[in-house]
């Protein structure tokens, strides 16, 4: 059963009283304590002038008085800036870098496109500071990929190629962004790849990553980091930091209760995030969290972005494509993502839309049935504004950040509120305005209402389309259906023809 529908899920004690992220104010960069000057200018180059609340909260728990002494679990809405929230303190903590590079921070995300996006954020702030970021996502062969991550024996000038030394398997990167499957490949197969020096582990889109096994990636990673996974005489300094004080301080200082030992390296610190973080003890326990601290925006697990407007659009099932076209026309040239229930529906709908004559809206498909190369190309074109409407299935869109998406359309109503949150969250990001329309038939209205009740800030109005727009489209819709029928028949005939030859 989905966790959402379980009536009485036991909640772990540390999850019962979260730190409320919404109590944090945005903070201008010049007021962020201890922010490295080079990091500040990297942020300014990204046109970032202040930190968002979740970023302030994490800074406080990592660089501020919290000093990374507890593992952190964050539940914060889509588009609230979670990527920078963990990237910033990690980059600051990895400074100053020693002369010998080793892999000290690992970020695991569920999809390749998301990994590329996260790497870009790290690149923007880490490269100017001399830190290197790698990618392990299976874009190339294991052998090619490892050569971008590790100096192999003989690769460096002057090194005897026959002489193997652990030093010559030196890492080329300080930070690695990876998808779980390829990460496990490297752990198991790649000589010279090690997680032994890891200080920071980030699990982004955690509920998705913990739900699926992906070759037992989590136990594999935790086992590989074991030698650094003990408490130690960490950097301490919490007292000094606290005495210097934060300009905002919604919370009193917590005692951390971290044991100290004699290991020369610090405990593996974990940061676990999602916009819909799981509360399932069975899943969270796999992470082996150390004295975890729960940070959450608002009281409910599901919360929609502040500037999102939700609308329902009621129509009969058989004319849904017509209503979708009418809606897209009424939205003018605004960038939209249309979600369907499956990869097959995505494909069919996209085909049908392209059969509408005089539509003058460029529409492309993005789904798990496509080759990764095609998908990434489509996403890049959508980012650059080369076409206006992306029709997508759910699996691929978690965490995707595409500038300028003003509308999300649920062509098929989502089954779970979690799905609604992630779909709707492709718009109204970073405080921008956005709208989410859900198409439904009359008999689905009750279910939709019940679904939306599960989320905070989920008021939903009915949206109606001008009747003349609907009328005008009827005949075009009929010819689009006939055209699509022909295309399907043609494609079915083709293999038969071949066998007759
Ligand atoms: N401090 C900031 N100032 C301005 N823009 C920011 C700031 N922090 C992040 N952003 C922008 O906000 C957008 C959303 O950030 P991000 O992708 O990290 O959100 P998220 O919380 O991870 O969302 P999701 O849950 O959907 O993955 C990005 O375009 C990012 O560049």
UniProtKB/TrEMBL annotation:
InterPro entries: DEAD/DEAH_box_helicase_dom, Helicase_ATP-bd, Helicase_C-like, P-loop_NTPase, RNA-helicase_DEAD-box_CS. SUPFAM superfamilies: P-loop containing nucleoside triphosphate hydrolases. Residues 323-473 form the Helicase C-terminal domain. Keywords: ATP-binding, Helicase, Hydrolase, Nucleotide-binding, RNA-binding. The keyword Nucleotide-binding applies. Signal peptide: none annotated. Coiled coil: none annotated. PROSITE patterns: DEAD_ATP_HELICASE, HELICASE_ATP_BIND_1, HELICASE_CTER. One of its GO terms (molecular function) is hydrolase activity. It catalyses: ATP + H2O = ADP + phosphate + H(+). Residues 63-295 form the Helicase ATP-binding domain. Its EC number is 3.6.4.13. It is an enzyme of class 3 (hydrolase). The Q motif is unique to and characteristic of the DEAD box family of RNA helicases and controls ATP binding and hydrolysis. RNA helicase. Belongs to the DEAD box helicase family. PANTHER family: RNA HELICASE (PTHR24031). This is ATP-dependent RNA helicase.
């Amino acid at each position: 059963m989905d966790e959402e529908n379980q009536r009485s899920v036991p909640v772990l004690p540390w999850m019962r009283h979260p730190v409320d992220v919404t109590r944090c104010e945005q903070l201008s960069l010049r007021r962020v304590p201890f922010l490295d000057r080079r990091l500040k200018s990297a942020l300014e180059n990204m046109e970032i002038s202040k930190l968002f609340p979740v970023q302030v909260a994490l800074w406080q728990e990592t660089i501020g008085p919290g000093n990374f002494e507890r593992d952190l679990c964050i539940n914060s809405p889509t588009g609230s800036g979670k990527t920078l929230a963990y990237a910033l303190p990690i980059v600051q903590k990895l400074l100053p870098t020693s002369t010998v590079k080793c892999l000290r921070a690992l970020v695991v995300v569920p999809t390749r496109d998301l990994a590329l996006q996260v790497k870009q954020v790290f690149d923007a702030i880490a490269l100017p500071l001399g830190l290197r970021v790698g990618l392990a996502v299976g874009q190339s062969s294991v052998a090619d990929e490892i050569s971008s991550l590790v100096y192999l024996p003989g690769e460096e000038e002057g090194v005897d190629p026959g002489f193997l030394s652990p030093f010559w398997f030196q890492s080329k990167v300080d930070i690695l962004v990876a998808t779980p499957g390829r990460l496990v490949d490297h752990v198991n197969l790649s000589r010279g790849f090690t997680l032994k020096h890891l200080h920071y582990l980030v699990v982004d889109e955690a509920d998705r990553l913990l739900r699926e096994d992906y070759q037992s990636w989590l136990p594999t990673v935790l086992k590989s980091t074991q030698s650094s996974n003990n408490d130690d005489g960490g950097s301490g300094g919490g007292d000094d930091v606290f005495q210097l004080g934060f300009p905002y301080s919604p919370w009193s200082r917590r005692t951390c209760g971290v044991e100290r030992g004699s290991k020369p390296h610090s405990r593996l610190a974990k940061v676990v995030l999602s916009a819909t973080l799981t509360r399932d003890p069975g899943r969270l326990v796999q992470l082996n969290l150390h004295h975890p601290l729960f940070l959450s925006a608002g009281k409910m697990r599901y919360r929609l972005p502040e500037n999102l407007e939700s609308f329902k659009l009621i129509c009969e099932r058989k004319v849904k494509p017509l209503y979708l076209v009418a809606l897209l026309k009424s939205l003018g040239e605004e960038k939209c993502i249309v979600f369907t229930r499956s990869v097959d529906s995505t494909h069919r709908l996209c085909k049908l839309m392209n059969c509408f004559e005089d539509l003058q809206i460029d529409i492309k498909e993005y789904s798990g049935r496509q080759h990764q190369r095609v998908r990434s190309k489509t996403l890049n074109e959508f980012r650059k504004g080369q076409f206006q409407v992306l029709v997508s299935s759910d699996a691929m869109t978690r965490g995707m950040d595409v500038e300028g998406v003003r509308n999300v359309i649920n062509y098929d109503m989502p089954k779970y509120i979690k799905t609604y949150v992630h779909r709707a969250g492709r718009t109204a990001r970073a405080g921008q305005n956005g709208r989410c329309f859900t198409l439904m038939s009359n008999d689905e209205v009750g279910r939709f209402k019940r679904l939306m009740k599960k989320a905070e800030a989920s008021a939903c109005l009915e949206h109606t389309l001008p009747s003349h727009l609907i009328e005008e489209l009827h005949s075009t819709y009929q010819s689009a259906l006939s055209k699509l029928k022909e295309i399907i028949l043609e494609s079915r005939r083709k293999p038969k023809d071949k066998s007759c030859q």
